[in-house]
Design goal:
Length: about 375
């Protein structure tokens, strides 16, 4: 049997009248979120931010049915409270200064430790867990996957606006993530023992609290026997989330079937991956990337076809991934809505309102034509 996988989707709660992220949702609205998601509900770092934590899936149709029904049900039940949900990497209006930290000692300590960096991080991500045998060393597996991960960011880019302005990036969320410690590329580790030595050093010296963890763009989860993808922006289009989850789990499965010997990533691998990450953040599907094998320029589409060949990705997942690059990612679609509204004579504020309304509709999984 193929390894099971799980999907975590983060949402911002948005006022349907002002279209702003609501600073402090009512107790009744938060109860609706808890009741709708049940044991799959998680409060995120802001009061206005929640997370849907899926059960373990074994097929994409299972994931589609679960995530779609929960998105639709929550949007429907929040509407009488004047709220909607937004799954994009960033909200076009922003408004981080008005946001309130979520209650609880964990989040209190998070904001105390990271201060303005935490306060600014009003962003949403898509996290994907793929199950691994507990006895399997996940560090060499992560090293095999690492050079290809900026391409998964390209597919997910959905945060082109920041604080009411086009940011010039397709994923401004990842720009903000780079302000945090231990949220970028993983350290160049050899194996699980190396990873434990690294964590022990950070804990022993007080650099990392005992209950804390690394937030790398890919990491071995310490709570579950999984490898966790964290690079992706939140995806307003549910089918984009499912495509990225499908591609990633097939990449992991391929590596499990063909394990590589333990080796730290080379300097060249890290240099190229960091450069491709930067280009994915800034230019998305329009970027000119560095082929991690030939070390030559390559387009996103050609790179995706290389990934298909390297990891034997099934045709159905690859067809949809290529469709994302052809039609545009969420970031591209948001920018198109914004530019079209400006061309029609709307003010910048009203143009952004058009974008938010589109995101609310799409995040509620109402646009079935995307399936």
């Amino acid at each position: 049997m193929k390894p099971g996988f799980g999907i975590e989707e983060e949402f911002l709660l948005v006022d349907l009248d002002s279209l702003q992220v609501v600073a402090e949702p009512s107790a009744a609205a938060l109860n609706v979120c808890r009741e709708t998601f049940g044991r799959h509900f998680s409060q995120e770092m802001f009061k206005s931010q929640i997370e849907l934590v899926s059960p373990v899936f074994f097929t994409i149709p299972q994931a589609r049915d679960f995530l779609r029904s929960h998105r639709q049900r929550l949007a429907s039940r929040l509407a009488p409270h004047g709220l909607g949900i937004c799954a994009a990497g960033s909200h076009p209006f922003g408004g981080w200064r008005a946001q309130q930290p979520a209650p609880g000692e964990h989040y209190h300590q998070l904001f105390e430790d990271h201060r303005h960096v935490a306060r600014r991080s009003l962003v949403c991500g898509l996290h994907i867990h793929v199950g691994i045998d507990p006895d399997h060393d996940r560090i060499p597996l992560i090293n095999q996957l690492l050079p290809w991960l900026p391409l998964l960011l390209v597919l997910s880019t959905s945060s082109p606006f920041w604080e009411g302005q086009p940011s010039g990036y397709r994923s401004y969320r990842r720009v903000l993530c780079n302000e945090w410690p231990r949220m970028g590329l993983p350290e160049p580790l050899l194996d699980w023992n190396d990873y434990q030595r690294y964590l022990d050093l950070l804990h022993r010296t007080g650099a990392l609290r005992p209950e804390s963890d690394c937030w790398w763009l890919i990491r071995p989860s310490r709570r579950y026997p999984t490898v966790e993808l964290r690079i992706a922006d939140g995806c307003p289009h549910l089918e984009d989330s499912l495509c990225i989850a499908d591609v990633f789990r097939q990449m992991v499965d391929h590596c499990l079937e063909r394990p590589a010997s333990s080796a730290r990533p080379t300097c060249e691998t890290l240099w190229i991956t960091q450069e491709n990450l930067w280009r994915a953040m800034r230019d998305g599907r329009d970027g000119c990337f560095i082929d991690p094998v030939a070390q030559a320029p390559i387009s996103a589409q050609a790179w995706l076809l290389q990934l298909q060949a390297r990891f034997a990705i099934a045709a159905q997942a690859m067809e949809y991934a290529l469709r994302i690059l052809t039609r545009g990612t969420s970031a591209d679609l948001q920018l198109a809505v914004y530019e079209r509204a400006l061309t029609q004579g709307f003010t910048q504020e009203h143009a952004l309102s058009h974008v938010v309304n589109e995101l609310l509709h799409t995040s509620a999984a109402l646009d079935e034509k995307m399936a």
